[in-house]
TrEMBL record:
Record function comment: Binds and transfers iron-sulfur (Fe-S) clusters to target apoproteins. Can hydrolyze ATP.
Protein name: Iron-sulfur cluster carrier protein
Subunit composition and interactions: Homodimer.
Pfam family name, one: ParA
UniProt source species: Kyrpidia tusciae (strain DSM 2912 / NBRC 15312 / T2) (Bacillus tusciae)
Amino acid sequence: MAALTEKTVLDALRPVQDPEAHRSIVDLGMVRKVEIAGGFVTVEVALTIKGCPLHTVIQDEVEKAVRNLPGVTDCRVILATMTDEERARFRDVLQGGTGAERSQGVEDVPPLLRPNVQTRFVAVTSGKGGVGKSTVTANLALALARDGYRVGVIDADIYGFSIPGLFGAADRKPTVIDELIMPVQAEGVKIMSMNFFVPENTPVIWRGPMLGKMLRNFFAEVHWGDLDVMLLDLPPGTGDVALDVHQLLPKAGELIVTTPQRNAADVAVRAGMMAKKTGHEILGVVENMAYRVCPHCGGRDELFGRGGGQRVADELKVKVLAQIPLQPETLGETGLYEPDTPAGQAFDDLAKIVGGLVSAGLAG
C-alpha cells in the first residue's frame, strides 16, 4: 500500500471542482493545508467568500475523495475564507491565458474574446419588441443544454432585461470574487444580466457608450469558463448595443425572430439587413407564435396570420429554421417549456439545427 502523503491527498483532491468556477480546488489554491496523523487526515479549504452557499457541496466532495484513499481511517475538513491575496490569485488562475497567449501579449484580452476561443456566438435579434425574442433565446439555451452543450446567455437587452425571470432566477445574485463575477446558473445554463445589478423595477437610463461598456464588462469581468455556445439576447431594432455586438464579435451568427404578422416581419428584415452589412452570418429565421395547437382536434389555429417568417427568410435569402407554437403553459414560474410539449419539441428541433451549425463552425 502506497504511503499516505500530502501529495497523495492533493492528487486525490485534484478532481474536486469548485461548483461555480468548474476548476480543480487544488489548481485554484483553495486547499490551504493538509495534515496527516497516522490514518487521520485534516484538510483546510479556503472558500472564496464568507458564508459560501455551496460550502456543503465542497465539504462533502473533499471528504469523499479523502476517505476513499487507502490508509485513511478518518477525515476532517476545515472550511475557512480566502484572504484578499488568495482571492487575487484565484482570479489570476481563472482569467490567466496560456503561456503562448502571454508571450503574444493577449493575457489582458477576456478569454471569450481571445483569437483561439472555441466558443461559438449566436446573437438572437428581432426588428421590434413583443415577438418573444427573449423567450426564444431562453428556450433555445435550455434545449441546447439538454443536448449536452455547455451554454451561456448574455442578456444584452439591457433596457428590457428578462432572461433571469424566464429562468426563474430573477431573485438570485451572482457571486463576486475579487471583482470577478460568477454567472448565475439555472437549468444547466450560465446567465448574466443587468437584472442582477439593479433594484427591482428600476429603469436603466443610460446613453449608448454606457451600454457598450456594460456589455464589454459581461465579457471581461465574468468568468464564463469553457462554453460551446454563447447566446446573446439583443435589444430589438438596430441600436447601439447591436452595433457593439457586431464590433466585439465580428464572426457571430444571428437568428432573426419574427411573428407571422407582416409588420413584425418587415422590421425583422431591417434587423437582418444590418447583420449582413456588418458581416454577421444569418443562420436563419425563427417564426414565434406561429400557431396554436387546438386542444380538441390537434389542428393548427393560425391566430396571427401566416407567412411572416417565410417573408423574412425570402428577403434575407435564408431558411425558416423553426415555427414555434403559441403555448401559455410553462415550467412552474419560469418562461421555459417542458420538452414533451409542442413548444418544447419545436425548441428541441431548433437546438439540433443550431447545434449542428455551431459544431460545423458556421456560427463563429
